[in-house]
Specification:
mainly beta; 5-stranded antiparallel sheet; 280 residues; 21 strands; 3 helices
Amino acid sequence: MIDRLATLKAHYEPVFKRLPNVISVCVGKKVKGGQLTGEDALVVLVWKKLPVEALAATEKVPSKVEGVFTDVIEIGDVRPMVGTATEIEAHRRVHRPLVGGISCGPNYPHVGTLGLARVFDQMGREGLLSNRHVVLPSWLDPIILSFQRGTPILPPGRGAGGVFQGEPIAAAQDLAPLVAWQDNEVDAEFAIYLPGISGQNEVLGLGPYTGTGEPAPGQAVAKSGRTTGVTRGQVVAVDAAIPVNYPILGLVNFVHQLLLTPMVQPGDSGSALMAGDKVV
């Protein structure tokens, strides 16, 4: 069925994108009352969901196309989330070796989550993986435009206290620049561990992981973040295109994204998404 939905998406997305408010079309499950129904659907993402009576007949997304349900979901103005609020205590602790799911960030009150704690670059150097806007938040605030390669990363991040809270563990590498008004696939950044620091293939509260998996609509997933800890949800849709509004860059379009049920709050940015013992 996924192959058929992908074919329908390729055909109908250009058609639906001509309608008012439509952003993109993705492949997923229909949602009713905040719950996935289990029915396959073409999920239509819009800036704002308008009452049916406010739309002309030619402006409406049909309820079905070729026997497949559609589902219109409002995503609004999406912005990168960095936290300054109080963290969960267990996620502020410095674990040795390091694990995913704990607080991290540069020496600045923007803070997020260390996603994966044992990642290697092409040169075999070990480090951590998080969001770029967590590790190098220079595109969020004009005050910190100078943050660049070599920026020290702290566990926990400065966050709520607004003060230096620990010794640096890694240095940002500035490997994944984002480009406004073009298609991007990841907001990600790798930071190389400083001497004596190492990580393990484990996420706090979720346990060890053994590799990567392929996400699918309806799949049960979980994350561990510094603000809300372990939360669980489902994949609503795959292959979504979602524009994200960065304060300095402007709109950055991300393609091949996942749409999830609500799972995160500011400061959870960088959390790894897991399905069982696989990272997805």
